Amino acid sequence: MKTFKCPCNKGEVREIARSGRRTHFRNIPDLEIPASVSIPTCSACGEEWIDDAVAARLDEAMEEVYRVAVAAKVEDSIRALKPVVNQRDLEQLLDLSGGYISKVKSGKETSASLVSVLMLLAEAPRQRIEELRNRWRAEPKPMPLSTLAFDARRWTDAVELPSVVHSTRAAGHSTALSRKAFPRQRGHAVVHVRQSYGVGTALDS
After folding, report:
1. Mean pLDDT for the chain overall
2. Is 146 helix (H, G, I), strand (E, B) or coil?
3. Which residues 6+ apart lie within 8 Å of 157 measured at CB?
4. What is the pLDDT of residue 161?
5. CB 75 within 8 A of CB 61
6. What is the per-residue DSSP string for 26-49?
7. How many CB atoms lie within 10 A of CB 203?
8. Taking the complete model, does pTM exceed 0.85, yes or no?
9. Which end of the chain, N or C, is more open, meaning fewer C-beta atoms within 10 Å of its C-beta?
């Protein structure tokens, strides 16, 4: 392409290929653009000028980068899940055909939904695999108290105690619960609900 003066009046727009550039592609917000891909860029302000032709060239290059990134995420997830569940049982649990996960690890294109499930399971393999198995039962078994999310009502129902609940959302910027804020009463539990993780910690009883 021909170079032209950038509206910033400080540099020229010309084709530049370099490393370190990232872009939002499909569902990955920070995928690295191959260093070999040239994009019309201002030499002064760095503004990129992308027309239809440049966009088509960029999309073609990013498809391969995306495929490699997805395969890596699948492989990392499977590695984390392997000590807890073998690949065949995992395929059965997710209603996948036999050998499908191996094909995905080898580069077969798959859905972002499946990869998302694998990544979430891999965050806490033993707990989440057991929870998923239980959820798929026709009649789910009651989960042990230790695996329940600390919702105030569910927690007090399980232990049959009334509760006083402090929510960080309701308290605005408050991040801690003072024991002095509530009288010490036998048979009562003070629960701090952590908004960011959705779990609670019994502070007093």
Report:
1. 76
2. helix
3. none
4. 44
5. no
6. TTEEEEEPPTT-EEEEETTT--B-
7. 16
8. no
9. N
Give me the amino acid identity at 110.
T
Q: How far apart are the C-alpha atoms of 23 and 34, rounded to whole Å? A: 11
Mapped to the 3 state alphabet, what secondary structure does 99-143 carry?
CHHHHHHCCCCCCHHHHHHHHHHHHCHHHHHHHHHHHHCCCCCCC
Give the model's pLDDT for residue 49: 87
As a whole number of Å, the end-to-end CA separation of the chain is 73
In the block, residue with structure tokens 């891909």: 37
Q: Which of 13, 18, 17, 31 is nearest to 67 (CA)?
A: 31
Structure tokens of 190?
């003070």
Q: What are phi and psi of 116, to 5 degrees?
A: -60, -45
Q: Cα–Cα distance between 12 and 4 in angstroms, integer?
A: 6
Contact 164, 188 (CB under 8 A): yes
